[in-house]
Amino acid sequence: MAFGITRDELRKWKASIDEGNIAFITHFWLDERFPNMNTVTKVGCHDLGQLAAWGAAYGLKKEWIHIRKDGYSHYDLLGDTQFQILQAEGKLYQLSQLTQIKSGSS
Fold first, then answer.
1. Which of 15, 66, 76, 77 is deepest in the core (most CB within 10 A)?
2. In what order do the strands lie in the sheet with 2-3?
3. Sign of torsion, CA 87 76 68 70?
4. Residue 87's domain spans which residues?
5. To which H or E segment does residue 9 belong?
6. How far is CA 66 from the centre of its chain?
């Protein structure tokens, strides 16, 4: 179950993908398969070759891409991998914003 993002944030993520970019969106997420994880970052791109090449630079396998018919195929980043990639990409603020929400800070 996903939560913690606005429709506008989702719209912007999709628009960035539509423009041919590698796009990032981080949100709260609960899944019984991953009981110790409470956030996920989705990294998407319309061009699957471009997305696979991006992922390979971080040791991600192309088989891990969640292929979607609607064109918003993406990697799901969790845990340490999520943190390390967001940090390397200069997007750690996405995770930090959720941490502030969770702790009640502003």
1. 77
2. 2-3, 23-29, 39-44, 74-77
3. negative
4. 2-103
5. helix 7-18
6. 11
CA–CA dist 5, 60 (Å, integer): 25
Which of 10, 5, 9 lies closest to 70 in space, CA to CA? 10
The structure's pTM equals: 0.85
CA distance 83 to 75: 14
Number of domains in the chain: 1
d(C-alpha 53, C-alpha 6), whole Å: 29
- DSSP letter at 71 equals S
- The answer to whether residues 24 and 32 touch, using CB atoms and an 8 Å cutoff, is no
CA-wise closest residue to 95 among 13, 44, 24 = 24
pLDDT at site 84: 94
> How far is it, in rounded angstroms, from Cα 42 to Cα 26?
6
